[in-house]
């Protein structure tokens, strides 16, 4: 009888692996470096070799597993189990992934994009409490996410579902986004977006602030610097956090107003600001939601941290069984 | 073998009934007046009597049907098949609906709220082309709708899913909404919302306009008057349509940016403005969506008109089979 799951979190620097129980408990985990040389042609063979080595090491065979799940950057074709345009892996053209791993390991394989997979992880054993309706928002270099509605990950007609970073929160005077639009959430709530908001507000702020001084002096300022200063009482930095929270409150409220999830879970590097950020977002969230949503949808900070990828990937593998 | 579906569209003025094939073709339809006297206590017995009478008339028995579906105003409990707080039916307290109809007719029964049911109808045989990802927006006295994502109607944790009218499109200087928030889509895109936008713009518009003159004279102006004048070349009325379309373009774009449906279908009384309104909404929709969504999600006008309710209700009944 099949008893375990394998989750793989494929990133541009490392590939993380986990062996998990069907309940989502991590039993073993390891990582290897991602070798992106020669158009990333070593990546899939390296994954196969590492899996074979570890299964032998642990005395496990293909019959011990329900499936292998993987989260990948780039555009994922879930049916063909291929990845296209994953630039941080040097995979410009379409790369066969699932067919090779299934053939070499003999275990069923499922793949989805990394933000969707992280959403599955947080929903399964993280802040989402395994509820059928959970939205995950990741605030990092960009803003991404995944939407689980009525128990299903929402992909949409062209696979662009869950692109929370491209919700428009500043329709008339927004910053330009890499997508071609103006005023996307990503332009004001990613790590670089927070700094953009700080630069804009610095133009008109009058008063003492180490952060404003650093910006005006042309020093490198990070989103973390802004949050740390705001928590320490810098009122300029606080006004930046207030504005970023306004945008996040508006975007999360609009998602909740139409989808009414049990929770919206905030993850990614910027979410390290924790309760300080969560409570600020919630203030605006409560301003912009209607009564039934206010009392039923919660704003939470992600719980899984570094393991979200392998846990979510294992969750994807667990769904193979039910098909 | 079960071959047909019954759809019931329960409204405050009439109750519409339809007998449909499993493919969604209306074979018979009829309507009765809604008797809301005595706390609406006659409504369910009237439905039962009308169904029994018609089935006898057509020589049909319970074995000819897969199920009965119903769309209802108010707060619907889909599990208990009850309705609470449907004020236009005089149902203030919880009303048993499904248990009585199932007992009297011996046919499985399913119920959902009227906006969700209309969404199912448009998705099934209307503008939605039976695609698994379709959003329906109804612009009438209020703004409502339903979201079908990955084949499922999205209800959310407290049943508030699909409340598209309460998306915030004017976060800082919006009109007050009946829900308690400010700047909801409903306050600017419902029939009365369009007139509110006209009144606001009339304050600063300089130039000749019969619509502006009517507003300034305190005459009754409807959203239809505004659209008719705009199409006839009244530039004040045109500026109102432009502003309303901006809000609808923003709201539909933000839904598409996160859910990437095949289409967003616009229905309800205000949508009678047809292609004139659709193309205006699309202009802003294309401004506010990111590239993958621009080329994959379409803005459409609803096709089913008056029959949407019975067709959607029959669609709900058709899903009983698959359980």
Automatic annotation (TrEMBL), chains A, B:
GO BP terms, alphabetized: glycolytic process
Enzyme class, broadest EC rank: transferase
Origin superkingdom: Bacteria
Record has ATP-binding as a keyword: yes
Alphabetical list of Gene3D superfamilies matching this protein: 3.30.420.40
GO cellular component: cytoplasm
A GO molecular function held by the record: ATP binding
Enzyme Commission number(s): 2.7.1.2
Key words, A-Z: ATP-binding, Kinase, Nucleotide-binding, Transferase
PROSITE patterns in alphabetical order: ROK (PS01125)
Matching NCBIfam families: ROK_glcA_fam
Family recorded in the similarity comment: Belongs to the ROK (NagC/XylR) family.
Record protein name field: Glucokinase
Species per Swiss-Prot/TrEMBL record: Streptococcus penaeicida
């Amino acid at each position: 009888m099949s008893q375990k799951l394998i989750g793989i979190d494929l990133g541009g620097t490392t590939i993380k692996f986990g062996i998990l129980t069907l309940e989502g408990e991590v039993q073993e985990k390891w990582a290897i470096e991602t070798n992106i040389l020669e158009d990333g042609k070593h990546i899939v063979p390296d994954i196969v070799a590492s899996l074979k080595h570890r299964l032998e090491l642990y005395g496990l065979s293909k019959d011990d597993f329900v499936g292998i799940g993987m989260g990948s950057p780039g555009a994922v074709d879930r049916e063909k189990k291929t990845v296209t345009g994953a630039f941080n892996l040097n995979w410009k053209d379409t790369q066969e992934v699932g067919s090779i791993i299934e053939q070499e390991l003999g275990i069923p394989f499922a793949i989805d994009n990394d933000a969707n997979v992280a959403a599955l992880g947080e929903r399964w054993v993280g802040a989402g409490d395994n509820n059928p309706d959970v939205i995950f928002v990741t605030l990092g270099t960009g803003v991404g996410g995944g939407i689980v509605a009525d128990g299903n990950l929402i992909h949409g007609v062209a696979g662009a579902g869950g692109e929370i970073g491209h919700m428009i929160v500043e329709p008339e005077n927004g910053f330009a986004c890499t997508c071609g639009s103006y005023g996307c959430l990503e332009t004001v709530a990613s790590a670089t977006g927070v700094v953009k908001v700080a630069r804009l507000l610095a133009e008109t702020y009058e008063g003492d602030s180490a952060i404003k001084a650093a910006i005006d002096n042309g020093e490198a300022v990070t989103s973390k610097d802004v949050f740390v200063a705001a928590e320490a009482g810098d009122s300029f930095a606080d006004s930046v956090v207030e504005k970023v929270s306004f945008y996040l409150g508006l975007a999360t409220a609009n998602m909740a107003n139409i989808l009414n999830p049990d929770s919206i879970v905030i993850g990614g590097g910027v979410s390290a600001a924790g309760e300080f950020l969560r409570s600020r977002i919630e203030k605006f969230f409560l301003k912009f939601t209607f009564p039934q949503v206010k009392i039923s949808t919660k704003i939470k900070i992600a719980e899984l941290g570094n393991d979200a990828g392998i846990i979510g990937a294992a969750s994807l593998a667990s769904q193979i069984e039910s098909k």
